[in-house]
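Continuing the batch. This is chain 6 of the set; chains 1 through 5 are on the previous pages. Same settings as before, nothing changed between runs. Recording input and output for traceability.
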Amino acid sequence: MTTSNTLYTRLGGYDAISAVVNELISRLMSDKQLGRFWENRGEDGINREKQLLIDYLCANAGGPMLYTGRDNKTSHRGMGITESDWTLFISHLKETLTHFQLPENETEDVLSFIESTRTDIID
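Output for chain 6:
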């Protein structure tokens, strides 16, 4: 499988996606409203969650990763994620992508993909 024109490659591959995930999760955990989702979580659980997110994003962006986690609907069920949480999450995602100076086309592609997951994530 060639990854030369995939979003995975245009984003910079595994290392770039991993850096974005680590920055984004740090922002989300520090947010007064969204931080509740990581309260009382151990470091190992958070690291596992980050790795699953990295694998998920890499695989869905056309990279050579195998995602072995659950689907979005199952993994977010019962978390109480609201429209307000989603809006705040998207603002942190946009700030993170800006921080890494992601080009406009790739930013739009990332945001479009993330938006496609919305109905499975919001309770």
